[in-house]
Amino acid sequence: MKSTIIAVLLAAVANNVGAAPMPMPTPPGIPAASTAKTQLAALTVKAYVDPGGYNRDLFPTWITISGTCNTRETVLKRDGTNVVTDSACAATSGSWFSPYDGATWTAASDVDIDHMVPLKNAWVSGANAWTTAKRQQFANDVTRPQLWAVTDNVNQSKGDKSPDAWKPPLTSFYCTYAKSWVQVKYYWALTITSAEKSTLTSMLNTC
């Protein structure tokens, strides 16, 4: 009897029986929750400072990352499954799981590349004092969890809002979202508001 049960279990594993694991994108540099909490405590808390003059063109996107691939195409390839590209690096097929809302898309046109910390939010939390070259680095940062392939209308719903004004539809993603937001702000030495810090603290407590 025991050997029969073991055989059944081994067969189940071999045939991948059971719930399939949920695909997840893989932006690099997402810290542990304990690290994110330490980083959050180190951030400067102050009201947003908007000197005016914000323009998205002050954060040039998308730049060439490697070969013929620009930032958007690089993230689509990184975060997608079975992504096929043409000679110009444009995705011609594949699938993309949006961790913000749990949707899966098979057309690249349905996918936006979201800046975890929106460009306008960065502008009012310190980036207005940067050079254009530094803002370009920020807007095309593929070495930290700043760029995410997500459902286009969800990204549009987020706009330039910070976590106290907008959170991803999936509460199960709050932990990763907060860890990523904090890591980006910490690395780039951007400020946070008191409301932002309070919300991020609550989101990190879901980890």
UniProtKB/TrEMBL annotation:
<dbReference type="Pfam" id="PF07510">
    <property type="entry name" value="GmrSD_C"/>
</dbReference>
<dbReference type="InterPro" id="IPR011089">
    <property type="entry name" value="GmrSD_C"/>
</dbReference>
<feature type="domain" description="GmrSD restriction endonucleases C-terminal">
    <location>
        <begin position="106"/>
        <end position="201"/>
    </location>
</feature>
<protein>
    <submittedName>
        <fullName>Secreted protein</fullName>
    </submittedName>
</protein>
<feature type="signal peptide">
    <location>
        <begin position="1"/>
        <end position="19"/>
    </location>
</feature>
<keyword id="KW-0732">Signal</keyword>
